[in-house]
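Following up on my earlier thread - several people asked me to post the actual chain instead of describing it. Fair enough. Here it is, all 160 residues.
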Amino acid sequence: MQTIQLAPNCSLQPRAAALFFATICLVSFSIAAIFALHGLWPIMPFAGLEMLVLGWALRLSLRRRHCLETITLTEDRVEIETRDGLQTRRLVFPRHWARVKLCPAGSRLHPSRLTIESHGRAHEVGAFLTEQERQALAGRLMRSVGRVNESPPLSDAAEG
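Reply from S.P.:
Thanks for posting it. Predicted structure:
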């Protein structure tokens, strides 16, 4: 059995995010207050809107820390468990019929897509990985899963 765990790189911690948000709010509202005192009061709602959008973006970034993908390879199946906070989704593909597919990017602005497919079903894995990490994972999965009708032995040498 072989297990691969994938998680996004989230270096921003909640305490650091709160400190960053408080500092930016202080600076933004201080500058807006100076303009408001000189008669340009309409700047205050825009500063508030800016901080609301920044808070929303920070919240989304922090929520991403709870994402986790676990790919378990056994002799007869490929199991993918995706956790996104409180929701868990589990897909099982027969290893003998599974196919790992790395679809190249349509342009430099879009990343490639790594999918595991079998019997008309497909699931994307590693969407949050960098391009190099995704390519390395694709190579590792292709060596472990093999082609359709092919199931290479799962050994410790394949984990490298």
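DSSP finds three helices and seven strands in the chain. That should answer part of your original question.
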